[in-house]
Task: structure prediction
Amino acid sequence: MTTAIINDLAGLIRTEPAVYAARTCRETLRVMFQHPEAKSIVVCNAANEPLGLLMSERFFLRATGRMGADSFYGEPILKLMNKAPLMLDIEAPLETVMAAATDRPDESKDDCIIVTRNGKYAGVAYPSDLLRCLQ
Result:
């Protein structure tokens, strides 16, 4: 059995669903249910440039929480997304990506990292994948 050494971010990216910024929480929740394997949903503008990130588990907990469902469902997704997620270009060295990922606040250390190519959404990287390939 051979083991491939992944030395760039391109080898780690995963495709996660994306929604446009004009979506409501109800519409985004539908997208989440259509992709139950996804850990996150990336919020993009019409030019496919990432604007924010929703971690699926946190989003689901908020959707099913005490806040009135009627008011939650109608909210624009822009209100609930992380407006300052870690975003890096696909050409970034893994050491740079790892340093930026570990430098985040504790509450967002496990959040997916948005990967872009020429400023456009290309996919996400899981912090756990980064740790495995750097060991």
